[in-house]
Amino acid sequence: MTALKRVKKPAVTLALFCGFAGGLSAAGGAAATGAETAESLLQGNAQAVRIILLLTAITLIPTLLIMLTGFTRIVIVLSIVRNAIGLSNMPPNTVIIGLSLFITYFVMSPVAGSINDAAYQPYIRGEIQLEEMSERAMEPLRDFMFRQTYHTDLEFFAGLAGAGSADELEEIPNRAVIAAFMTSELKHAFAIGFFIYVPFIVIDMIVASTLMSMGMMMLPPAMISMPFKILLFVLVDGWQLTIGTLISSFGV
C-alpha cells in the first residue's frame, strides 16, 4: 500500500505538469491566432484602419477639447461666477459643463469649418493621406492658439523647446504652442474672474460692516449677502454679460 502511494505521487505530479504545459501551448496558439487575425484585418483593409483611428480619436476627444480650444477659460470663469455669488452647487456642475461646451462650440465653429474644408473633406475624397490631413488640421488650430496666447508665454516655451525666437511662428513646434496656449488661457480666465469677483466682494463688505454696526456679530454675513448678490446678478443680466465677455475675449 505504501509503495502504491509512492508511485501515485510522481504520476499525479507528472500529469499536472503535462496539463499546465498543454494549457500554455494552447494559450500561445490562441495569441498567435489573435495576432494573425489583427494582421489580416489591417492588411489591405482601409475601413478597418479608419475604425481603429476613429475609436482612438474618440478616446482623445476630452483631452483635445481641453488643450486645443477655449473650453478651459470658459469653464473656469463660469465656476468663478458661481463661487462669487456664494452658491457652491447652483448651477450644478452638469449645467456649467454643458453651457461651457455650447459656448466653446460657438467660439470654435469658424476653426472647425476651416478644418473641415481644408483637411477632412479632402481626406474623405482620398485626395490626401492621414499625415497631410493632420498637418492641415493643425494650421487653423495653430492660428487660433497664436491669437489667444501671450507673447511672453510663447517666448518662454519656445525657449524651453529650443525653437529660437517666438517671432518665427512657423518654427515653433506644436508642443510649445499648446503649452503656451494653455498657460495663457489660465491667465485670461483668472483675469476675467477677478473683475467679476470685485462687485460681490463689495456687497459682502457692506453687509458685514452693517451687521457689525448693529451688533449682530454672530449672524453669518454670507447668509444675508447672498440674496442681495443674486438680486444684483439678475438685475444686471449677469449671465448674458458674462457669456458676452467670454465670447468677446476670444475676438469672435
Please name the defining characteristics of this protein.
elongated, 252 residues
Compose a concise summary of this entry:
82% of the residues lie in helices and 0% in strands. With 252 residues, it is mainly α.
What does this structure look like?
There is one protein chain. This protein has 252 residues and is mainly alpha-helical. It has helices spanning 2-42, 46-68, 71-85, 93-124, 130-148, 151-160, 174-213, 221-235, 238-249. The protein contains nine helices and no strands. 19% of the residues are buried.
Topology (elements, then pairings):
Elements lengths: L1 H41 L3 H23 L2 H15 L7 H32 L5 H19 L2 H10 L13 H40 L7 H15 L2 H12 L3
Q: C-alpha Rg, in Å?
A: 30 Å
Cα separation of the termini: 94 Å
Low-confidence segments, given as residue ranges, are 1-9, 11-32
Q: Averaging pLDDT over every residue, what do you get? A: 76
- The percentage helix is over 70%
